[in-house]
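ok trying again, last paste got cut off:
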Amino acid sequence: MKIIKDQLGNVLEFSKTPKRIISIVPSITELLYDLGLEENIVGITSYCVQPYHFSTTKKSIGGTKKVNIARVKELAPDIIICNKEENTPEMVKELSEIAPVYVSDINTIAESLDLIKQLGDMLSCRMEANNIIAKINFKLADFKQYIKDKPSRKVAYFIWAEPWMVAGNNTFINEILKLNKFDNIYQNLERYPTIPLEKIRFAGDPRVIILPSEPFKFTDDHAFEIAAYANRSMTVFADGQFFSWYGSRLLKAFDYFKELQEKIDSSF
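nice, full thing came through this time. structure:
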C-alpha cells in the first residue's frame, strides 16, 4: 500500500502505482511530461499548451475552472491532479468521486520542489524527479549569484485589465519577483487584488511595469493607459509562464530572467 499526502494534507492511498493520469494544471502537465510520463497522461485541459503536441495527442477534458465530468469518467483515471488556486473545491469534490485527487498548493520554489518529489514518489519516477530537482537547485544557486549585486527596483505586475488586477503577496509570482530583486509595490495586498489604476503612483510609484503574456493578453494600448498614470516607469512585456508556472518550467526560467534583467538594465 502506497500512502501519499498532497500539499493540502489530504491522504491518498494506492494499492499500486497510478498509471492513468489526468492533469488539470498546465504547469503540472508539462512537469509530468518531463518526468517521462507522457504515455500515462490520458487527459489534460485546453490550457495545457506544453508540450505543444499534446493538443493533438491527448484528450481534452475542458478548462481549469470547468471540466467535462462525463469525459473524465470515460477516461477512467487512476489519479487526477489539481491545484488549490486554479481549480475550485467543488470541482475537486466532484472529481474525487471518480478517482483519488492530488491537490497542489504552491507559493514558493521550495513548495514547487516538494511537488516534484511527491509526484516522483507517487508515480514511481523518483530518479527522474531527483534529477530535475538537482538541476533546478543548481540553476537557482547560479541565478542567486548572478542577481546578488543587481539593484532592487519597484515593480507592478499586472495580471488583468479592466478591472485592473495585479499580483500581490502569497503568490508564486511574488516569490519570483522577489528572487529577481523586484520590489512589488502591491505585496502588502493579498493574492490578486483589483487596484485603482489612477492611484498607482500613490501605491508605490513603480519604475517597472510588467505585463505578462498570460492569463490576459496585454496590448500596447493597455501599456499606454497604464503609462498615463505611471509616467516614470518602463513597460516590459514578459513571458507569463516563467513567472507563474512552477515545476520543471524552472529549468528554463533562470536563463530567461537573466535576459530580462539585461533588457531592463539597458533601459536605465
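cool. The chain has eleven helices and twelve strands. The chain has a mean pLDDT of 95.
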